[in-house]
Amino acid sequence: MKETDGRSADARRRSESSRLAILESATDLVREVGYEKMTIEAIAARAGVGKQTIYRWWPSKGAVLFDSFVAMNEKGAELAALPDTGDIESDLKAVLAATADELNDPMYDVPMRALNTAISNDDTLAAQYAEWLETPMREVKRRRLQAAQDAGQLSPALDLDIAIDLIWGPLLNRWLQRSGPLNSTYTNGIVDSVLDGIRAR
Amino acid sequence: MKETDGRSADARRRSESSRLAILESATDLVREVGYEKMTIEAIAARAGVGKQTIYRWWPSKGAVLFDSFVAMNEKGAELAALPDTGDIESDLKAVLAATADELNDPMYDVPMRALNTAISNDDTLAAQYAEWLETPMREVKRRRLQAAQDAGQLSPALDLDIAIDLIWGPLLNRWLQRSGPLNSTYTNGIVDSVLDGIRAR
Amino acid sequence: MKETDGRSADARRRSESSRLAILESATDLVREVGYEKMTIEAIAARAGVGKQTIYRWWPSKGAVLFDSFVAMNEKGAELAALPDTGDIESDLKAVLAATADELNDPMYDVPMRALNTAISNDDTLAAQYAEWLETPMREVKRRRLQAAQDAGQLSPALDLDIAIDLIWGPLLNRWLQRSGPLNSTYTNGIVDSVLDGIRAR
Amino acid sequence: MKETDGRSADARRRSESSRLAILESATDLVREVGYEKMTIEAIAARAGVGKQTIYRWWPSKGAVLFDSFVAMNEKGAELAALPDTGDIESDLKAVLAATADELNDPMYDVPMRALNTAISNDDTLAAQYAEWLETPMREVKRRRLQAAQDAGQLSPALDLDIAIDLIWGPLLNRWLQRSGPLNSTYTNGIVDSVLDGIRAR
DNA sequence: TACTAACCGAGACGGTACGTCGGGTCTTACT
DNA sequence: AGTAAGACCCGACGTACCGTCTCGGTTAGTA
């Protein structure tokens, strides 16, 4: 995987059409049957490709899945910036509610859960995830928080990386552990508490 | 699973020694080879048990693994209460740092990651996890926060369930997604920010 | 293979119906596609059997094929004796002509050629062939020659094993090497020459 | 195969060094791993040649093997005549014993067995074998028998082709079917019986 | 002397089959 | 009835080769 850069050097002969067919098949299959029941054999069959063509370029089905996520995000052009109405509180509530909606939609839930399973059990994949998917997304979030901090809405001493974890971590954790419903009551509660703190004043 | 309660009627003839051998084998195996490579066949072989004995009492390897966790926690008797020195801030910092240490230890990391994988891909398991493992742990956490709230250290209007998510969610999420190091700098930062909020004042 | 005797001891649980289906599939397939293109996968599929069931009991496709021959010969009851009209010359000519006919018939030619390929490339198989198929057939031939010798039609000093090779060897060799047509002109010529010798008198 | 004759027109540009490397690799490989395990891929790799170069000039691995035999026999110049001491009986015994020795030597046994497997399963190859290898060898044998016949040692009415089959057939058949040891006791017995016949006199 | 076409090594490609592993079911014999 | 053992059908694994197909780079013969 990560065949999207240095590729020209060592893989000039690689078939681009096969690569795309494989990534698309993986995307479709993970949605249809889930991560554990998605097999390399099925990916190859659906893509009209020999199994060896998958094994030649990817070390595991997790890696194929990962690349299919990267490919999807590349097509989606530059990652959209978070909304900025000037009011960090309402913006965050809107973003978190939207995220919760997405996580409730099986269309997104199933593949993302699959990706998380893959990452959770493969260090290499986790590192690539960090570099190619998490970092850009974190950058987008950081930019919005930076703007709020610059505007004096967030504490000037605040470590924005911690802030990001604080805001999105609880939601993602509840999603992954299925430990409760994901709705705006919950997400609004998070934003309120995180912004103002939980200590009595 | 959790076959030790109401089901006692139809399982009077069940071999307790086989059940224990199976749970122990599962515990050992998940540590040695991880969740995905742990097979029911291997569990049965190591436990000196027929495969059918596993299939008779558990619906999936995730369920076996889950029961082995429940069994471990039962042996550890009543879940210890969180420390209460009267200072909620230092207590939380201590607890989170200890949790981080645990999550850094492969002895705990591997099986817990396995359990999370199992939960993430199985609603039934998630429900049982919530009932038998998460709820008690959450209760312990809630009791400490309740004490702090009663002592006037936490905001009186605070929803303690959200507070728990706020405090532990970021750490667990960073652990599961392997998105950064788990150390006391991080955990202290979380506690500080959560307690005081991130909004400029 | 050779599972037809001691079987009861170590394979009481073996499925007789699967065994028969496998042997029959092998017989059919070798006729339809030949030895080299007959695959274990196809045998299993046609027999409605898991591949493992073949691998469990036979070491190679040659071994399966061999057993299917043994099974066919068992069903054919006791090996028929060669005709004995009292005239060894005409009897041998009749038998050799019949054998030539058989070898010209693809129904027999293809599987027998397959069996020979298997034997030629596998010592173990050759030994089993010798014990289970060649020896009984040779015994039948020897009995007819013995009768002729007893009747004073063959040289009393003659080693019957050599005689058998002399009579059948040339025909079988021409068949295997495809070095000429198999017809009664040829077989009669063999019998004449072998009986009377080729030395000028 | 036998591509060195009429085809010269369209093969002027053919690389002779590649051709030789392929034939030599085939010879070596068949000795090392046997016919069934010899692959075109391995031949190409060992010869330092692209697979296409083999597929361009030969239709099957059997054809390559066959050509490697032809090449070996060409190097050995004109096929040596059989010894002629004037005594056909002792000459035949000597030749058959020498042949038996050769067939007992794995150096010769393995490749020749491979060639026979190839022939046995490929009509085209069998025809070419007949033309390029069997016919010349048969001619050599016929010449020696002709001399004996001319000298009055063999029956004047004898069909020499049948005689050749009678003399060499049993030995070759025993070799191919591995149905007994190849030694001079056996070969002498054949010669004696074939020369004098087996009929009582 | 350059042109150009075939040949060459290399190796990716869509496939088929390999021999193995494990899933979940079923049967046998023992407790 | 529950159990250890293990055969069974099945599906997938990851690998080896099949025969075909580019890809650049020689290497002849032709212009």
Characteristic terms for this protein:
2 domains; DNA-binding; Tetracycline Repressor, domain 2; Arc Repressor Mutant, subunit A; 10 helices; homotetramer; disordered N terminus; mainly alpha; 201 residues
Structure, explained:
Four copies of one chain form a homotetramer. Chain A folds into two domains: 7-65, Homeodomain-like (Arc Repressor Mutant, subunit A, Orthogonal Bundle); 88-196, Tetracycline Repressor, domain 2. Helix content of chain A is 71%, strand content 0%. Chain A is built from ten helices and no strands. Chain A has helices spanning 7-10, 16-33, 40-47, 51-57, 61-75, 88-104, 106-120, 123-150, 160-177, 184-196. The first copy, chain A, is elongated. The N and C termini of chain A lie far apart (51 Å). Chains A and B meet through α7, α8, α9 and α10 of A and α6, α7, α8 and α9 of B. The structure holds a DNA duplex (31 and 31 nucleotides). Chains A, B, C, D: Residues 39-58 bind DNA.
Classification by helices and strands of chain A: mainly alpha
The most extensive contact between chains is: A-B, 52 and 52 residues
What is the element string of chain A, with H for helices and E for strands? HHHHHHHHHH
CATH class of the largest domain in chain A: Mainly Alpha
* CATH homology-level superfamily of the largest domain in chain A: Tetracycline Repressor, domain 2
* CATH architecture label name of the largest domain in chain A: Orthogonal Bundle
Total number of β-strand segments of chain A?
A: 0
Tell me the quaternary state. Answer: homotetramer
Query: How many angstroms does the end-to-end distance of chain A come to?
Result: 51 Å
Relative strand content of chain A? under 5%
Number of domains of chain A: 2
Largest sheet of chain A: none
The low-confidence parts of chain A are 1-9
Radius of gyration of chain A: 19 Å
Helix content class of chain A: over 70%
Total helix count of chain A?
Answer: 10
Mean pLDDT of chain A: 91
